[in-house]
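Posting this for the archive.
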Amino acid sequence: MKKLLCPSMMCANFGDLSREVRELEDAGADIFHLDVMDGSFVPNFGMGLQDIAYICKNATIPCDVHLMIRNPDRYVELFAGLGAKIIYIHPEADAHAAQTLRQIRSLGCRAGIAVNPETSFKSVQDLLPLCDCVLVMSVNPGFAGQKYLDFVTDKFREFVSHSETFGGYEVLIDGACSPEKVRQLSAMGVTGFILGTSALFGKDRPYSEILPELRAS
């Protein structure tokens, strides 16, 4: 089963970002996941534009941007210009989400939606033909270190089972993605894994050991 291992760079060591990027790439990371928060749609602030620009410029693997912000349509051109290859929006934050997803694609990026724990499959299914990726949140957006919400597991099954019907989008998990969840959800058909403190960062082991183990699990 295909696995996209996506370090959540909000959890990285910003004291030596160049080294973090290099070591994660050398260890086999597939995509750098970059969180943007506005303190309004979610009660926190995420990565700065300078950090996002630096990672996108220096990375040799693709970068995605997860826009946890209101009115994301105003900013997708900015993040595409910084070098993001995948842009996620929250449908709840955009009055014209379909138009914004089309705009993302028109900028040469892959378009995606992020699905909050309380957001149902049915409520977003009309957007799925416009999506290349679906980022299913297994925690409430905005904070690292939360506990996995068990009721979301059935939602992964639902999105995976309907993927081909709506154009073959990829399904990814964001939130409390432990090694056990990588194994469980990969077997279910989830292909992308946003890796934060549950599986990758803050461990007393090198990335060069952790990422290959996750890929082989």
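DSSP finds eight helices and eight strands in the chain. The domain at 4-216 is CATH 3.20.20.70 (TIM Barrel).
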